[in-house]
Amino acid sequence: MKIALIILFSTFLVAADDSALGSFKVKVSNIRISKKLYIDSAFAKKYKKLMLEEFKKGPNFDNQFRIVRIGCGSSCTQIAVINMEKGKIYQTDLMIDGSGDWIRGDILQYMQESSLLIMSGCLQEDKTKCGHHEYSWQGDHFKAEFFRSNQSAHAPDATISTPAK
User: Is the pTM of this model over 0.85?
Assistant: First the structure.
């Protein structure tokens, strides 16, 4: 019986995540990729090799952007965003620890057809902020849309992000 409930609950979470991504749907169109990636901040310089590799792969988020995962520990991931049209790198404050045994699947979910980033884990590696986090991309920063603790549902977190300078 427990196995059936776990499978049913896991299926519900996946369906909810797909629905959330769809509710922030964007039109995917051909974009003009910048000829140059601007490595013009200390953050960009620190991760220059990774940023250049990711830039070559093209957009994977919100039509013209690329989500870049930066490892910050054994189960920690920091998020950066590249505007593929402008060649601009945005450093965000989003950092997620996905080591909790309640997490199923990837700690990050996103797609090119959506402006929503879904993160599962402990935000900023803070054990009091573990759960399901949803952020919409606002062109140069993320805005908190929804947070569900692994204990209970909560209102959105504050906007978390600062563009790289």
Answer: no
